[in-house]
């Protein structure tokens, strides 16, 4: 089931499955296709809800800044939860999406049953000079607006530049990239990611969380170790994958997430029951 697209709502799809709803949030320059190798396996223990970021896939690209800000995404995720009529759910974020879902977990822990994240430089990076970071993001965003769609393909994480993505994922991702809105991506850089670091705040985590780490991404290793030392309720499993570990180590990722959820269910049986909506 797909959500109707309006100018002020994120596009999301609800897939059939067993168990609680599971919100899946992709990263920049990706789409719902990020999860193609995970949906069947995860639907055995949850009901996947695949959302697309502003300006990505089938979601609109607002002109105003507020929807793109991390707190704007928290409100948007809560709106989806309310529409589904449940008081709590499972949440999984990938890359920039992981930084957004961690922001969500820190702000609204009572909305969570459990949380899964993958490698996310955005979530755990150290911003030494905030003013310089914002200035750099603004410059990059303006440059993208000047270059137009062609400029998007120059960004290293654009799927067109990926060498190891399997065909069954790369082709749908590239097709969805045709719908990327340049303003939406520019605003994502300018307003979503510029100041999004939870390096200090992660110490306040109250949600059972699993970091599925693609250990081939060497630059993430210090951040992984920092999170392991500082973030409460965090478990880590290291897999033979890269930044998109849910794709290039899909089978192991699916097993790790399934095992984590089943253990949480055993510890918290009410998670298997759709409880009435309690509000934010």
Task: Describe the fold and architecture.
The protein has 280 residues and is an alpha/beta fold. It has a single domain, classed as 3-Layer(aba) Sandwich (Rossmann fold). The protein has helices spanning 39-42, 70-84, 96-107, 121-124, 130-147, 149-152, 167-177, 182-193, 221-230, 245-248, 250-267, and strands spanning 12-14, 21-25, 47-51, 89-93, 112-118, 209-214, 234-239. A seven-stranded mixed β-sheet has the order 1-3-2-4-5-6-7, with helices on both faces. It is globular.
Strand content: 5-15%
Q: Please summarize the sheet with the most strands.
A: 7 strands, mixed
CATH architectural name: 3-Layer(aba) Sandwich
Which class of secondary structure composition applies to the elements?
alpha/beta
How many E strands?
7
Strand order of the largest sheet: 1-3-2-4-5-6-7
Low-confidence stretches: 275-280
Mean pLDDT: 93
What's the domain count? 1
Which CATH class applies here?
Alpha Beta
Along the chain, the helix and strand elements come as EEHEHEHEHHHHHEHEHH
CATH level 3 topology: Rossmann fold
* Radius of gyration over all CA atoms, rounded: 17 Å
Termini, distance in Å?
A: 24 Å
- Helical content stands at 40-55%
Task: Assign the CATH superfamily.
Answer: Alpha/Beta hydrolase fold, catalytic domain
Helical run tally: 11
Shape: globular
